[in-house]
Amino acid sequence: MITTAVIESIELLDVGDAVGQGDASFFVGVRAAGHTGWYGPIYDRHARYIERHLAGRLVGCSPFEHRQSIERLQEGSGSYVDQRCHSWSVGALDCAVWDLHGKLFSMPVADLLAVRPRPAIPAYASWLRLDLTSPDALSAVEQVSAEGWVFTKWGLRRVLGDAEKLAALAGAVSQRAAGQVAFDALQTWSVDLTFAFSRWARRVPIVWLEDPISYHDMSCYTQISMCGIPIAAGESFIIGDIPFGEFRPNQLRALTVDVVGIGGITKMLELVRMARDLRVQIVPHGRSLMPAIQLAAAYSDVVPIVEYQLQWEQRRQNLYADGIVPESGRIRLPSTTGLGIDPRRDLARNRS
């Protein structure tokens, strides 16, 4: 165990030759005392933002003083035009520092957070780009839902039809699925459509309807929380969205924040305490699965399950030296130190 160290350098690892078009292709590394903490994959815009604006701020910081690191990264943040890119970039660096912390202490991050983290975490599966109107859609729903997931989640964009048709699709999916189902509207609905859907779908058992309307006016979520269908939201929240202003998270079935998007594990720990006080569950967005697993292992009362994105997660796991594979809807906590996301160095194209 190494208990005294300072961050010496930041590096970026490009694995672009190993990913598909449009996929995230960089890892960020934070080095101290002969060890490197990693987070990735991240997109090119975040890698370049880190390189230009943030990397130098961490050099000389302790890898164990996470609040101090966040404060350094947040200095002058109000002057940045792209707050979303800033928040994701800070979150990636924060997770890399936590990975480094775990490696220096020779333990998984979950063991840094809790005395007895649970060894396996239940997961739900999402497949948002499946066209539910296609001929083979319901067969896919049946197959995926039979794989042991807590529930499955499907995309229900406005383009698929009016409230009556959307409710009919939801009913057909629910009837065909082997277990419970949720739906994600990807912020494409209106308040009126949400209420109309709730009337047509009142007899359809739905775990939750996620992100039905835009986040531009969060007070609308207070309004639709009374529609009769459980609502989930939060995956697009960034650092500045905590606390939530007039929006009250306990009106939701779940907060689906992204661990990296919200600013990293350090910011998530603030949210875990807040959620516990408000008695609302956090079910992290699947884009940042690996740190979400550590949080779910440590705080099962607040983070009971995680999301596994069927379309994209296996591609991300192929970039790790020790990828994970769900078994009957459960994901085992990685036994490696840190977050368990060291990149496969044989995939590296170059380093910056």
Helices, by number, come to 11
Q: Uncertain spans, ≥5 residues at pLDDT below 50? A: none
Query: How far apart lie the N and C ends?
Result: 29 Å
The 3D shape can be described as globular
Strand content: 15-25%
User: How many β strands by DSSP?
Assistant: 13
Description:
The chain is of the alpha/beta class and 352 residues long. The protein has helices spanning 44-58, 66-74, 83-104, 109-113, 137-145, 163-176, 191-200, 219-224, 265-278, 289-298, 313-317; strands at 9-14, 26-32, 35-42, 120-127, 152-155, 181-184, 206-210, 231-233, 254-255, 281-282, 306-309, 330-332, 350-351. Strands 4, 5, 6, 7, 8, 9, 10, 11 and 12 form a 9-stranded mixed beta sheet that branches. Strands 3-2-1-13 form a 4-stranded antiparallel beta sheet.
Quick summary:
With 352 residues, the chain is an alpha/beta fold. Helices cover 34% and strands 16% of the residues.
Secondary-structure map with pairings?
Blueprint: E1 9-14, E2 26-32, E3 35-42, H1 44-58, H2 66-74, H3 83-104, H4 109-113, E4 120-127, H5 137-145, E5 152-155, H6 163-176, E6 181-184, H7 191-200, E7 206-210, H8 219-224, E8 231-233, E9 254-255, H9 265-278, E10 281-282, H10 289-298, E11 306-309, H11 313-317, E12 330-332, E13 350-351
Parallel strand pairs: 4-5, 4-11, 5-6, 6-7, 7-8, 8-9, 9-10
Antiparallel strand pairs: 1-2, 1-13, 2-3, 4-12
